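Q: Hi! Curious about what Caudovirales tail fibre assembly protein looks like structurally. Here's the sequence.
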Amino acid sequence: MLWSAKNNCFFLPTAGALVQAPDAIAVDNEVFNTFGGVAPAGKMRVVGGDDLPAWGDIPPPTHEELVITAETEKQNRIAQANDYMNSRQWPGKAAVGRLKGDELAQYNLWLDYLDALEAVKTTSAPDIKWPTPPASAEG
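A: Let's find out. The predicted structure is below.
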């Protein structure tokens, strides 16, 4: 097996491999078996100081990655709330004046929840206090 520190990957020993990775060196099967498969939890394959594979810690997510994750979470929560309200036909009933009593109160609580979700600033990730959805009338 060949190892390329420049590419941080293994290659089969073929003529093409040397073209793709001119820095490739031969490594024994033990090195390949140790570093060619699934990394241990929390680790990733890196190039060690000796230019051979090693396990290094996975870096924490960047602020940008945390914001993207939070934005996805926000959109999922909004979609779930809308699905819940639409499954009860509350928007349609409200439009024609047929939403009354407990249903109207529940609908307003869910609309307040949607407003609270819309107000979440995902740029403050990971320090986000997500609003709690209202309790459903069914328990």
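A: A fun detail: Residues 63-87 form the longest helix (25 residues).
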